Amino acid sequence: MSEITTTNSAELVTLDTLAAEARVFSENMARNMIQLGRVYTEAKKLVKHGEWTNWIRENGGMSERSAQQLMAIYSRFGERPAFQSIEKSKLFKMLSLPAGTEDDFAEQNDLESMSSREVEEAVKRTKEEMQQQIDAEREKREAAEAREAAIRDNPPLPDDIAQALQEKDEKIKQYQGEIERVGETSRDLMDEAARLRREKEQLAHDLSENNELLAEVQEQCDRVQAEYLNMQSTLAKGDAERVPSDELTADVFATAVRQFIGTVARMPHMGRVFGSMTFGEKELYGELLSTVESWARDARKALDTIESEVFTL
User: Fold this and answer.
1) Would residue 213 count as lying in a domain?
2) How far apart are CA 149 and CA 73, in angstroms?
């Protein structure tokens, strides 16, 4: 029971540590993204006309549209401390907020604890509420215009009423402009998402083909290596089993043994070298050495037989 408690405690401590690290790195990613948007914003003012797209590809490693999105994030949230540690995916969702509503949105929502889906839903609710306000303002304006038409022949409206109508009209125009801008931003984001999906599918296809090619090449390599080892072994055995046509005298045998020893005398001292060889290399040495050992046993047996016959005579 004590061991289980200790193990669970260690896992909780490790998990808490990892959670803290995850929060720190997430905040750093958000800050770096906003700062990258600032860099692009300042650089675009200095890059020559017509060179912006190439400049982004060479120095940022991304498309012009992706850079524009980062610049939009910096323009909307870069100077607002409340958004400095918010994740990139959430900031993208908030780009569709009507201009001027960012701070109110951050006060009304716990952005750091919310998921990207929750942020998206909150943005949608805010836009719907804004649209309701626009509709209400439009209805008020239309009612005011109707009243104005009804009293057009009467004395002018008091200054305070005329001023109020003018302010309402300007606010409605502002809301309408924001709705149009949000629509354009949403279409751009949908196009970018579709492009990324296509790139992902192409990369997955290429990776699958490369893996199949690699497996085929490896199979061919293994087959060729096996054929090579078999050929070497066959040649070695053939050399050892081939019966010479001429007579093997003691002098000829002694000369051959000295040449053989001169060639392979290093083998008993090559333990470290053999230890670092691959299995295939050591297997080839083993097969050749087995051939020599088999030949030596057969030669000794033949020599013993001759000695036995001589002794009998």
Assistant:
1) no
2) 45
Give the alpha-carbon dihedral of 82, 85, 87, 90, to 10 degrees: 0
Q: What is the pLDDT of residue 239?
A: 56
Number of Cβ within 10 Å of residue 175's Cβ equals 18
Answer whether residue 4 shows pLDDT above 70: no
What would the pLDDT profile of 251-276 be if each residue is shown by its tens digit?
788 888 887 887 777 788 888 888 88
pLDDT score of 116 more than 70: yes
Spatial contact of 114 and 122, defined as CB atoms under 8 Å apart = yes
First vs last C-alpha separation in the chain = 87
Q: Tell me whether residue 141 is in a domain.
A: no
On whether the pTM is more than 0.85, the answer is no
| Dihedral sign of CA atoms 22, 25, 29, 31 in order | positive
Q: What is the C-alpha to C-alpha distance for residues 149 and 164, in angstroms, rounded to an integer?
A: 17
Query: Exposure pattern of 222-249 as b/e (b: 16+ CB <10 Å)?
Result: eeeeeeeeeeebeebbeebeeeeeeeee
Residue 255 counted as domain residue: yes
Cα–Cα distance between 223 and 260 in angstroms, integer? 32
Q: Which residue has the tokens 């900031």?
A: 91
Which domain does 74 fall in, by range?
1-85
| Whole-number Å distance between alpha carbons of 237 and 288 | 8
Which SS3 state, helix, strand or coil, does residue 312 take? helix
Q: Measured between alpha carbons, how far is 194 from 208 in angstroms, rounded to an integer? A: 22
pLDDT tens digit sequence for 40-95? 888 888 888 988 888 888 887 888 888 888 888 888 887 777 777 777 778 888 88
Domain end among 37, 61, 85? 85
Contact between 92 and 111 (Cβ < 8 Å): no
Tell me the residue type at 69. Answer: Q
- Which tokens hold the place of 280? 């295939």
How would you class 216 by CB atoms within 10 Å of its CB: exposed for 0-12, middle for 13-18, buried for 19 or more? exposed
Closest CA to 284 of 252, 237, 239: 237
Q: Give the total number of structural domains in the chain.
A: 2
